[in-house]
Structures are given as C-alpha cells and as structure tokens.
Amino acid sequence: MGLLDILLGRTKPVTPDLDRLFALPSAAVTLQAATGFTATGHGAVCFATVEGAAFEQTHREVQALLDADTDRTGPPVELLQDTYGYSWLVSRRSPDQLPQLVNDLHAVNSSLESNGFGPQLLCSLAGFADDTGRRLALVYLYKRGTYYPFSPLPGAAERRDSALELQVRAALTDDLRIEPDLSRWFPVWGAPGL
Question: Can you state the angle between helices 98-112 and 53-67, rounded to 10 degrees?
C-alpha cells in the first residue's frame, strides 16, 4: 500500500484465512461458559449459486469427501438453496463433534477456493443453542476473515436478538476475530445449519 492509497483512504482487501475456522472449538468452550450456548453439530457453507459442469464436479468431489467420513452421524452432507437464491452445503454431526464439523467447513471452503470458486464463497456458520431454545450462529465472513454472532428471535418473523449478539461479541473478543463493523453483521434468515 502506497502513500497515495493512504491519503485517499484506500485499503487493501483482507485476504481470507480459512485457518481461522479452527478457532471455533475453543471459542465454543468460552461461549458455553459465558452464555450457556452449546454446539448443535450443524454447520453450513454459503456461496453464490454457480451453474456449470466444473462446479458440479467440484460439488460432487466435496460431497464424496465428506460423506466418506465413517465417523459421521446423521444424514449425509446436502446441498440446499435458500429463498434468496444462495446455495448452502450443510453438514450435520453430533453436538460433541464440533472439531469434525469445523474440518468439514474448512474442507468445503478449501475445495471451492482451490477449484477457482473462491469469489463465490460468502460465509460459513456453526449452529449453537441454549436450554431455552434460543438459537445462535457464529458466522465466518469469507471475504473479511472475521466472525460475527447472529441470533434470530424465537417465534418472531425476521427479528434478531441484538442484545444477545452483543453479549456474545463481548464474550468472544479474545477467542475470535470479531467483525468490528456492525453493518456487516448480515442476517442469515432461514440459513440451513442454524
């Protein structure tokens, strides 16, 4: 970055660092101690829907890789599309298999990135819940290399629990690189894996 870039307020884009996904299991311990939320074992990777044979081949390879895991519980990895037209590759594990779920998310992101589909990657999330039924996702923004919490209010149509999200942000500041710009805490309504 040069002097002219500094003077004009230009910044270098953040390089995605998929290894930050591996911080989730230790952050989950902090999250449980601070808020009572535990992992559900569900997670997903969101990407802009891509058409074509190259993407289909990549998708089949990723799905075969993850489905070959003999330690998997529950249904196989599945590809879903949300009402906004985005694709989600959803992985389900038992709640005590958060490290394996993170490996799944990392494998999906890495495979898509290495096959040239990095620009289509949007986010990854891991689901959490508490004893009262509240849900929470820790969302990793691929292009920013940061996390943010997202918690839809139970029974409310597209309303989020902002107070809980801020509480989670405060609890996880030392464990995860939290997105400082709250306007980038995009709602992921109806996200599979949440």
Answer: 160
Q: How many domains does the chain have?
A: 1
- Comparing CA positions, the residue from 16, 13, 14 lying closest to residue 106 is 16
Residues 180 and 124: beta-carbon distance below 8 Å: no
Tokens, residue 175: 């464990």
11 belongs to a structural domain: no
78 bridge partner residues: 90
pLDDT band at 171 (very low <50, low <70, confident <90, very high): very high
The reply to whether 2 falls in a domain is: no
Contact 92, 75 (CB under 8 A): yes
C-alpha 44/C-alpha 127 separation (Å) is: 9
Which pTM value belongs to this model? Answer: 0.87
150: nearest Cα among 134, 139, 163, 158: 139
Residue 126 belongs to domain spanning: 18-184
Inside any domain, residue 135:
yes
Q: Parallel, antiparallel, or unpaired for β 86-92 and 38-48?
A: antiparallel
> What would the pLDDT profile of 114-129 be if each residue is shown by its tens digit?
888 888 999 999 999 9
Collapsing DSSP to helix, strand or coil, 181 comes out as coil
* CA distance to 60, 69, 111, per residue, from 18 (Å): 21, 21, 11
Joined together, the tokens standing for residue 31 give 């999250």
In a domain, 190, yes or no: no
